[in-house]
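Now for a specimen:

…
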Amino acid sequence: MGLEKCGLNLNHNHKELQAHGTAGFPCAAYLGQYTDKPEQVIPWHWHEELEIAYVKNGTIKLKIPTKTYFLEKGDCIMINSNILHYAIAAPQCELESLVFHPTLITGNNISAFAEKYLSPLIEKTSFDGYLFKRDYAEKEINHFISAFHAAASDVSGFEFIIRENLSQICFYLYQQFEQEIITGEAGLNQDNFRIRKMLDYIHSHFSEAVMVSEIAKAADIGERECMRCFQRTIHISPIQYLLKYRIMQGADILLKSPSESISEVSAFCGFDSPSNFSKIFKRFYHCTPREYKNSHKKQGGL
């Protein structure tokens, strides 16, 4: 199996397009090394697969709507299907992860594994993320380590080892949320769905003159509730997120299309002037757009 190269391939709604594994074995293993530099932030994104990540070294701050986790060396976290998430090293981190489709465990959508266990866990509980701390979840973390080692070393029968260990983790999670499943008392927080709709709108229209009222309308809520939802979930205002997203898109263009002028990049990203673009860019990246482009040329980043 081996390890895959880290890197996000996102559509305009920040849904990840990259296939994780194959149709026959829908699971992929990743090893990434990160710092807290802006260009190494893992941006808000989501995918249909479940993801489990383990901090091999360092520390990292991981966010999902309504929750923030601080993971230290030896900690592990599971993120549910279709949940937005974001991460930044604090200040550096080596991260191992497995991204897998639920059918890796269930086989198909009508099996007992799907109907009795995994589908109710994914769809009908408050499970959005679950933290396994090294001081009380050693057994579950060791299941991940065994699965990841099998994937990385490409041992004979790695498929059985990975599936068995991930199944053990999924069953443990089912047990933690079993009461919710039986009673039907809880489901995913409504903010999870609202914020994804609003971020989708921003990602699709960032180059336009976006108004808060338009962002709110995307989730069928008022402007005040839109502001409160952003603060509850990702802890910044809609306009602050829009500016940050525009700047990140601008930085990406500067590296991928070096022939584009600063003025052209500025206009494409929705800024009214190159000077305003440069001012806000420097606030995020601590250098001007031109300095950013030139520094990556010297590092062989183009």
